[in-house]
Each structure stands twice: as structure tokens, then as C-alpha cells.
């Protein structure tokens, strides 16, 4: 497979407004950068248990993404910025709670709770939550929020290319990334904040526990400024999410639902 050199962009964040305030939309776009690829001999290798490393890792990823899990994230995004976040996702009940902050040239932060098709959003903990009915939002709208894979773990799983075992319950390899669409992306896993235009490659590491759950994912993308490194830690697999809608919130303005 020949290496490719995609451009990287920081994803836009969208804040919803209630009452008589106007909506705020912020976008941090990094200059087009060209990640290279590291040479690797990451051909699938047998794991200590005898199963191919790729098969063993994919089984753990499939198990983890199908169940409730908590996540915490730290890492780099384009333009020498940093991202940090945490949350919980229950894919079966379609419940999500996540908060994250991007720091660097400017600070962008967001908190979201999603219960089914009801999204509650705010920027800071001392602000009032704003409710948006996702059933009334068109999928091509800036305000659409896709609960199919909000943490990016499913796309990470489908992007896994070569895998090798690096020790008991430890793996390393490459990702083969398809080009992202507008305001789309899956890295870092947990709080997607990077869009890889035109597709490309990345290096990754992962660990699992004795029960077969994925416990950490590390990804490295290279651009003209060096390496963008990001780490996601997973825990609480299969436990109740505890995600509930906020007790106090306001309704988003009707223009968020405009069908233009």
C-alpha cells in the first residue's frame, strides 16, 4: 500500500443558543499539513495465545464498541493546539455525555448530553443547557449530531490495517483512513477533533485487559510541524452509564430547525 499525505484540519465546534441570544459558531482551521508515514514491518503476527494479532485486537474492539464505556482523552490537534476531554457512551441506549476543551491560539470548549434524540449542549459548566430535538434536524445541517458513532471508536475499528503484537495484551500497527466529510472525523477516539481530508495513514498502539476489553488507544499522525499524538483511555466497560437529561434547560430557537 502506497503512503498518502492528507491535509489535517481542526473540526468546528457548534454552540447552541436559547432565549434571545444568537448562535455562536467557531471554527479553528489549521493550515493544510502533510503527514508522512513511518516505515513499519507491522505484518500480522501471532499473539501469545496463538491467534493472529489483528484478529485478537479486532475482537476486543468489536466487543468494546458494542457496550457501554467511559473514556478520557488527551492529545494534539493541528496548529499546535491541545485537546482534553472525557465522557461516557452507551450505544444500545443511545446515551452520551461528553465534555472537552481545545486550547492553543484560542480556547474552545463544549459539553453535550444526548438521550435518544434529545441533545443538550452548553459551553461552560455555569451556563444553562440548551435542548435540541434531533428528530427535527436535517442530516446535512450544521446542527445535526450523529449518534451512530459519536466517539469515533467504530471508525477506528474499521480503519485498522496492519497489526502486530508487542507484548501480552499490547498491540501496534497502522490505520488506513478514508477521507473525512465536512465536520466529520474520528480522532482522537472519544472526542473527535481532527478531520483527515483525502484519507491517509497513521500509526497506533492499543492495549486490552484480561477480560478482552480495550483499555487504551494511542494514535500518531505526522504533519509538517512534527507528530500529533493522542491517547484515549477506556474503562467502565458494560457498567450503567448514569447518563440522564439535565434537570434545567432552555429550548433552542426555532431557526435551528429551519428547513432551507
TrEMBL record:
The keyword Chloroplast does not apply. InterPro entries: TAT_signal. Residues 1-17 form the signal peptide. Residues 22-55 are annotated as: Disordered. Keywords: Signal. Residues 22-53 have a biased composition (Low complexity). It comes from the Bacteria. PROSITE patterns: PROKAR_LIPOPROTEIN (PS51257), TAT (PS51318). This is Lipoprotein.
